[in-house]
Amino acid sequence: MPDSQPILEVLDLHVHFKMLAGVVRAVDGVNFTVERGRCLGIVGESGCGKSVTARSILRLLHSSQTSGQILYHPDGDDEPIDLVNLDPRGDAIRAIRGKDIAMIFQEPMTSLTPVYTIGEQIMESIRQHQDLSEEESQELAISMLNKVGIPDAERRFADYPHQMSGGMRQRVMIAIALCCEPRVLIADEPTTALDVTIQAQILRLIRSLQQDLDMSVIMITHDLSVIAQLADFVVVMYLGQMAEKAPVVELFQNPKHPYTQALLRSIVRPDTPPREQLHSISGSVPDPRNAPSGCRFRNRCPSVHDRCLEDPPVVEFGPQHTATCWLYVDE
Amino acid sequence: MPDTPILQVENLSKFFPVQRGLFRRTVGHVKAVNDVTFTVNKGECVGLVGESGCGKTTVARCLLRLVEPDQGRILLHGEQQTFDIASASRKEMLDVRRQMQIIFQDPFSSLDPRWRVTDVIAEPLIAQKIGRAEASRRVLDILPTVGLGAHFADRFPHELSGGERQRVSIARALVVSPPLVVADEPVSALDVSVRSQIINLLLDLQSQMNLTYVFIAHDLSIVKHISHRIAVMYLGRLVEFGTTQQVFEECKHPYTKALLASVLIPDPTHREQSYVLEGEVPSPLNPPSGCHFSTRCPFAQEQCSAEEPDLRDMGNGHLVRCHFAEDLDLSEGVFALPLATPSASA
Description:
The complex is a heterodimer.
Chain A: E1 6-19, E2 22-35, E3 39-43, H1 50-57, E4 65-72, E5 81-82, H2 91-96, E6 101-104, H3 118-129, H4 134-147, H5 153-156, H6 166-178, E7 184-188, H7 196-213, E8 216-221, H8 224-230, E9 233-238, E10 241-247, H9 248-253, H10 258-266, E11 314-316, E12 322-324
Parallel strand pairs in A: 3-8, 3-9, 6-7, 7-8
Antiparallel strand pairs in A: 1-2, 1-4, 4-5, 9-10, 10-12, 11-12
Chain B: E1 5-20, E2 25-41, E3 45-49, H1 56-63, E4 71-77, E5 82-84, H2 90-99, E6 100-103, H3 117-127, H4 132-145, H5 162-174, E7 180-184, H6 192-209, E8 212-216, H7 220-226, E9 229-234, E10 237-243, H8 244-249, H9 254-261, H10 302-306, E11 312-313, E12 319-320, H11 332-335
Parallel strand pairs in B: 3-8, 3-9, 6-7, 7-8
Antiparallel strand pairs in B: 1-2, 1-4, 4-5, 9-10, 10-12, 11-12
């Protein structure tokens, strides 16, 4: 792609939840840009805020306090739309949700309703956004099922979700998400619940549909291998904050944040000597309600320093490579 | 290490009846485990891999008689005597469980939320008729072994993180000093940064306490890392068994090859792999005739759907269940299917 145009810009996003036990700062100052036709990976462990970030893009979090900007650039020279300002239950976001920006969820078992056939569930999405007759939308639904690789689509159209396997259900979810040809697809751990051979199928499907439809993808996962295989650009999150962001090859070859470095060292690679001790990060992810002040990684960080008690600065290493860490700032 | 068997599984089968209708008539059987035979030697780690529904967890549960096996023998060579777990009495099972313990997958649901850590870990000791005082002492002894401080003894599971809970599960299994531990997906519910801690702990404990593991997981890179020998299962059948080297580097079964090829490599400059196996695992209620893998196998011939292949020794204890194991060319070229590589500077 000659010139990269942003389709979605997330600027200084904060999502806080007020709870009895205090405020949970689930997302605290996240910035990234999704480019047209590219795949952005968001990687992190449980509680890092990756799913909350995704859901706040579609305004699916009603009880949260969201600040910052999420700018969606529709086709052409139209003014960008700031999704944060839209009413979560209003018509404006409903026109975008499912049409321009669609999402697939982690659990293919629970995100389809058991009382409607999969055909009806795909057609619901089509008829919400497109002015098509019953027959036309049925035709489109069947062609979508074919496109996502469901064999015998005309017959499976009338199946209920319980009649399908996990991999097939995830394909149905993808068909629902893609039937309105979205500009952006948000995939929240789409393969975590699936077997390895099915995971390979689904990831290849997402990759090829992304190329065919010139779609942008936000891939949210805890699995660095999925990131390595699919993403063009990566955001690493830890406890609601952005630890590092970089193009994928740069991130894997030249990680700067101690958390990214530790994560990359701790995974088992094909050439890891068998039965040797693996690198590991001490401790475990703290409860988001009592996240440490300053750098949130500091109580697990091997390079921790007094300065880490204060909020770390964003350090630039290249045009698109930044890490949020004190390590690279001279005293 | 001299190969002294500690566990011999012979022709193990477990069929679950499927009942339908008003009178709960049995209309068929799910052959969850079908004629599985393997041996575990003292001090080694045998990995058991396969996709969901292949029967690996059922094998684990049969080994401890948490489900009743239908056929076969499970011989456990204890320090003094040999038990056949498949036909042991309740009293014998008490002795068996002193020799063999299990670690479950999900540390969030395998610990009783109302029990303190000390009670959880002491339970196997109480079951073995060891007094309360002695049990508490042994709980305090085992906690540092799994990397937990003594102050954890009075905590409840909800106060612990996933990794800490899994350490408690490991302590509970090890407190009776069993020579053999079955670990059923012990790290798959854990965060990436904690996963390597637990694997390191399992490796440490194995060398310190001279443990033998049966390690079940679906993550092949972890199984490869920890196991000496690996058994691959598909639809209740053992399809390949051999050393880690034999199974990973010289695999002879097309299913094993496909499984290995679908492992994602954590390297963005290497996107050429991923042979994608078409289709899905058929229903174990009605598995394909002949070789169960024939419906998805890229090399399937007529013979494959007609006769079921036997598990044959390909030399040096490398067992493969395939008619054409000698002749297949499973080199990379056959399986490679390129994915687009990202441009170096995006």
